[in-house]
Amino acid sequence: MALVLVLVLPAGLISFCALVGYGLGTLGRVGLRRADRQRWLRSSAALLGAVAAAFYAWGLLHVAGSVLDAEDGGTDSSPLRPCRTPGQWERALSVVDYTVDYLPLRFVCETKDGGTYAAESVPGYVNPAVLGFALATAVSLGAAAFESERPGGSGPAV
């Protein structure tokens, strides 16, 4: 489980940097005033995707911290620290294991009776922000594709 986090977290950070570079580089290559609508849409899609990748990486950092906290043994390690929810101590006492869900991003505690619940390790704004920026990216990409197919559009962009 920790191995997947070690692979996905750098991928999110690399995606962020690559998308920002593409988005700003595409506009910078021709200049802001000379850029056509399709180029603006593709650049905005890349920048919106970069923001989505940044929010996802931020949530992954929280999940990775929870995994490290859960794997830490010794004094005060039972019940798992990330599974301790204020006001629900009895539920935390029945936790036997954990898993990580990547979509939506969350740290899931598994109880003795087979039930599960999401720990409050990922900030509440991360998953909605990732979804919102990913949808905005898809809309911008769709608009750019539509713009290239229009009879008066700029045609295939290089």
Written overview of the protein:
- The chain has 158 residues and is mainly alpha-helical.
- The chain has one domain.
- 59% of the residues lie in helices and 11% in strands.
- The chain has a 3-stranded antiparallel β-sheet with strand order 1-2-3.
- The longest helix has 35 residues, at 37-71.
- The radius of gyration is 21 Å and the shape is elongated.
- The protein starts with a helix and ends in a 9-residue tail after the last helix.
- The chain crosses the membrane at residues 6-28, 40-61, 125-146.
- Keywords: Membrane, Transmembrane, Transmembrane helix.
The whole-number mean of residue pLDDT values reads 86
- β-strand amount: 5-15%
Helix content class: 55-70%
Give me the Rg, rounded: 21 Å
Strands in their spatial order, largest beta sheet: 1-2-3
Which helices and strands appear, and what pairs or packs with what?
Blueprint: H1 2-30, H2 37-71, H3 89-93, E1 95-102, E2 105-111, E3 116-118, H4 126-149
Antiparallel strand pairs: 1-2, 2-3
Keywords: Membrane, Transmembrane, Transmembrane helix
Transmembrane segments: 6-28, 40-61, 125-146
Protein name: Integral membrane protein
